[in-house]
Amino acid sequence: MAASVPTQIIRLSCGPLAYRRFGSGAPLILIHGWRGTSNHWQETLTSLADIREVHAFDLPGHGETPPRAAPLTPEGLAALTLEYADRAGLTQFDLAGHSFGAVVAVAVATRQPQRVRRLVLTSMGLVRDDLEHYALMHTHSAMNLALTWWRPWLNLTRSWAGAWGPWLEWVADHPVLSRAIAAPYLRQWPQDAALVREGVRDFLTTDPLSALEIAVSANSARFRAALDGVSAPVLVLSGDRDPIAPLSAVAALSQRLNDCRQVFFQDCGHLPMVESPARFHEEVRGFLVAG
Question: How confident is the model at residue 212 (pLDDT cuts 50, 70, 90)?
Fold first, then answer.
């Protein structure tokens, strides 16, 4: 496996944030998805380093960033992203988000549109009609109610996280188990098996309460409304065999945006930057240098 970009720690108002930074040029911020980490962007950090100073951080409760007391929402994580940009001295930047990270990226782009030059949304879709929108609102309400009950109990388990570590490491290092956990998300398997093990380890070690808060907030109807406030040019990327964001949902997202180009990767699942890295980075590079 190629040498990875190590994490550093920066202290924000909400606490420490683990991040990776590599390359030179105009800044590009990368936001990972649910139960992922900045490690998903390792090849992006190095592949685009000749044209961009690439930044990627671990969301709270993910990777090396500890969980925080305040509930995780796209709006709160947008504020975190902008605080990071302020602390890093990034006046303007390109922005890319994967899956739930795309929801956060849209929240950033609508909160301070003058700062986002170009926007890349990967593996994210949108409700396709009013019936789905109605179902989504009721699902979100039910999940939010369940979260109210589960939050104090899951908050208690945070002190036990270290006890689960050895067992989770064993599961992630077991080739059969790690492959079974990753199978629903991947259509093409990376040649380096370590990428799968590391991804599964990140998935399993995510703080449970943080994961649940994100799962609930990702279903909020506010994302659909926020898309109307996006003014930056957008590149929408997705795998054509993505079980999380099907083709029709990705098309619905693209149609909602004013200045948008859409690209599908053939025989690809939910992680195109891992499954089809050469094509993924070629598309992102072309989009960024066109601006």
Answer: confident
